[in-house]
Amino acid sequence: EMLRSLVGSEMCIRDSYYTCEDPELSDTLKDNLKFFLNKIGWDEDVDCFSIVPVKGKKIVAKVWGRPTNASIGIYKLQGTPRLLDFLYSAGLGSRRSEGHGKWEIVW
Hints:
By secondary structure, the chain is of the alpha+beta class. It is built from three helices and two strands; from the N terminus they run H-H-E-E-H. It has a two-stranded antiparallel ribbon. It is globular, with a radius of gyration of 16 Å. The model is unreliable at 1-12 (pLDDT under 50).
């Protein structure tokens, strides 16, 4: 038991965080969005969803004491009004429960 616990604790699965510098950001976010909506049982077409950096900047933020890639800036979001309203309430991307992924509307 103890050996199994030690080995298990040393194994680390690395999460991948995409930033505005990654060309696959929009497609990856769309795939994650499909998974998230399916998981909560919310039926919404996300094929029309896209996110394009207008003035994005890659930063490194501390998440649970570890440096993590992230993005800040201005982004153009496209999607159905229902989907965008949901994302405004729920947040966008990873670590939403920790306050990451919050965004505001800029006119």
